[in-house]
Specification:
single chain, 676 residues, alpha/beta, TIM Barrel, Immunoglobulin-like, 3 domains, nine-stranded parallel beta sheet, 26 strands, globular, binds alpha-D-galactopyranose, binds zinc ion
Length: 676
């Protein structure tokens, strides 16, 4: 049983709130702010994120600060029992800064310095930008350190992108020197003898660019690793005054789920609590099952980056956003599902972007708690009120953890280097994320709880670990897998696994390199099929499709459970099982559809002694468990706009206040929370 501290010390409840920009309404504050507070309180809102993008209102001219309006806002929040998620304003800079100090503006990969505009686009190295950020963050912390409304620091907003200016190039070179020591070591690790690429000094190295070096996998991987470190370095710079002046106030930065540019497992180690922004592409039809599965994966991934602690859903749209290709309205019930699904996967908050819809500029039609009608009769507002009620009822869930026995590997560095590699299927990419997601979806639909970890994660708490397409082995990962299986664990491997080391150098002497004994096979070649081609294999009397990648392997001790049925490699193994030490390693040689993965994982989990959350359900029903000092909570969610059935254990359903058991009907998008 894992019970974690509350995100805000004095708030032992689930938090409900959103991004709030009262400064946009400063001229009408007497009417608007009053209405904001009244409607927030009625909707059960207990947190609001303020100050995001407020720099030009906080420092209208260089060195001339105006905190008066924020003082008023903080007072108003405190009076209404609302905690501030107070932002540092670095997500967007005021025009005067760009005008006076062009070095704060980013330089793109082609070497062009950008003009003022947009947001999330400053140079992370610029001493001027850092100094300005340090100054305003210090003033904010000093001013509000004892304020009763201050609950949490929201550092910047959605860190992302990269800068290729000369300052950043220099920092990159320093980082390379620290990592590789000598230029010869770098040349060897990057295989630079190829195409006459041996550098004679670090000064010759430039970041990847379409105008320059854009083929060296070593360089590209190093640049991605460096960029992650840049964000960590910048984040640490931002929080230094916050930590010094307000040591008890936790800090977070809102993450963007599978965003490619930052290795979030590495970055999130620096956050007190992980928070992230979820914008599902709801369809309102049968495809919503996959929409919910994708959100589920992202929630579990984000929880994983924080070491499985409760996290924060920092942003979600109360109604249709405005930037998706098609912004469908949410059917009744979807808002509740969207919010409670986050809680089901370990969030202790449901927060929105945004609380009040802005009147002008580019996000004026983005979903919000309060729309331009300012009406409490608005459908969305009423649904937000319902979510507020539900969250109050679910207060006992706050701080509870998970006890999942299955881990699924999702590794940013592996993704970078695998997607960059050229072999097999290049068109449309190698499909790493999609592959991990397909394994995840099968496990979740089988009603298994899943923790998502990366190759640096600890495998020992788990009974089964699944590592689809772990093409690159980080240092130490092979040893961990070996020990895990040796000690009785069930490991699931697939095609395109264990080909290269941490520097992207191929393992010599046959794939899967250091895992050959654990897998019990030799992976000799890999066929790539186009979207019209496929192979087949039969297992337990059922025939399944093999597609995209088919590994041609030879069993070296592994038991062959199924063989390919077509092509010149008919009769080569398609599925193997290798007894190793006390444990077992399964190897799935080809990419398959969901039907196989769902059947396979039932068997593999049984082997690992893992039992599902519920015995069975109709397609579209998903479950999770949270376990804490107030008990075990089983979340049952219908992801579809039609009635569905599930077979449930006996439990007290918190939202309806009724005891239920056995075959249970769920209305469209309904969520049940059973204390079992
Ligand atoms: C992001 C940003 C917000 C807002 C929303 C709109 O998540 O953090 O400021 O722009 O998108 O969906
Ligand atoms: Zn720069």
């Amino acid at each position: 049983m894992a019970q974690y501290p509350y995100i805000m010390k004095d708030m032992p409840v689930l938090l409900h709130g959103g991004d709030y920009n009262p400064e946009q309404w400063i001229r009408e504050k007497d009417v608007i702010w009053k209405q904001d507070m009244e409607m927030a309180v009625e909707a059960g809102i207990n947190t609001l994120s303020v100050g995001i993008f407020a720099w030009s209102m906080l420092e209208p001219k260089e060195g001339q600060y105006d905190f008066s309006w924020l003082d008023e806002v903080m007072e108003m929040l405190a009076k209404n029992g609302i905690k501030a998620v107070l932002a540092t304003p670095s997500g967007a800079r005021p025009p005067w800064m760009a005008e006076k100090y062009p070095e704060v503006l980013r330089v793109d990969e082609k070497g062009n310095r950008h003009l003022f505009g947009g947001r999330h686009n400053h140079c992370l190295t610029s001493p001027v930008y850092r100094e300005k950020v340090r100054a305003i963050n210090t003033l904010l912390a000093q001013r509000y350190k004892n304020h009763p409304a201050l609950g949490l620091w929201h550092v910047s907003n959605e860190y992302g992108g990269e800068c290729h200016c000369e300052l950043c190039q220099q920092k990159f070179r320093e980082w390379l020197k620290a990592r590789y020591g000598t230029i010869d070591k770098l040349n060897d690790d990057w295989w630079n003898t190829f195409w006459a690429h041996r550098y004679t000094s670090f000064e010759e190295i430039h970041s990847p660019s379409p105008l320059g070096e854009n083929t060296s996998h070593g360089l590209k991987l190093a640049w991605k690793r460096f960029t992650t470190q840049q964000f960590i370095d910048f984040y640490e710079w931002e929080i230094a005054p916050l930590k010094e002046i307000t040591p008890d106030i936790p800090c977070t930065a809102n993450l963007m789920h599978i965003y490619d540019g930052i290795d979030y497992f590495t970055f999130a180690k620096h956050l007190d609590v992980v928070s992230w922004d979820n914008y599902p592409f709801w369809t309102g039809d049968a495809r919503d099952r996959d929409v919910v599965l994708l959100s589920a994966f992202k929630h579990d991934l984000m929880r994983g980056t924080g070491g499985q602690k409760p996290f924060m859903l920092m942003e979600s749209s109360p109604s249709a956003p405005n930037w998706q290709p098609i912004n469908r309205l949410r059917r009744p019930g979807v808002l509740m599902l969207q919010g409670l699904q986050a809680v089901a996967h370990g969030s202790d908050t449901v927060q929105y972007f945004q609380f009040r819809k802005s009147r002008g500029s580019s996000e004026k039609f983005h979903g919000a708690v309060i729309s331009h009608d300012c009406s409490k009769e608005n459908r969305i507002y009423k649904e937000v009120c319902d979510v507020g009620e539900a969250l109050k009822t679910l207060a006992p869930v706050t701080g509870s953890g998970t006890e999942n026995r299955i881990a699924l590997i999702y590794d940013w560095e592996n993704k970078w280097i695998l997607e960059d590699a050229q072999f097999g299927r290049n068109e449309g990419g190698k499909g790493y994320t999609e592959t991990v997601l397909s394994h995840y979806s099968a496990l979740l639909q089988d009603h298994f709880g899943v923790d998502v970890i990366d190759e640096n994660g600890d495998l020992s708490p788990y009974s089964m670990v699944c590592g689809p397409m772990t093409y690159m082995l980080r240092d130490g990962f092979a040893e961990k897998v070996e020990a895990f299986v040796q000690n009785g664990g069930v490991y699931v491997a697939t095609y395109v696994s264990s080909w290269v080391n941490e520097e992207d150098l191929c393992f010599m002497g046959g794939f899967p390199g250091p895992l050959r004994k654990v897998f019990g096979l030799w992976d000799e070649e890999t066929d790539a099929l186009d979207d019209t081609q496929h192979n087949a294999f039969t297992w337990n009397g059922k025939t399944y499709k093999a597609k995209d990648f088919c590994a041609l392997v030879h069993a070296e001790g592994a038991k062959v459970l199924s063989e390919y049925e077509e092509n010149f490699y008919a009769s080569y193994p398609a599925l193997t099982e290798n007894a190793y030490g006390e444990g077992t390693c399964y190897y799935i040689a080809a990419r398959t559809d969901e039907d196989f993965l769902m059947d396979f994982y039932k068997t593999a989990a049984q082997k690992a002694g893992v039992v599902p959350n519920i015995p069975a359900s109709e397609n579209g029903v998903l479950t999770t468990k949270r376990i804490g000092e107030n008990g075990t909570f089983l979340f049952v969610m219908n992801s579809l706009p039609e009635e569905k059935e599930a077979e449930l254990p006996e439990g007290f359903e918190l939202l309806s206040g009724k005891t239920i058991k056995g075959e249970t009907k769920l209305s469209p998008y309904q969520v049940l929370v059973l204390k079992i």
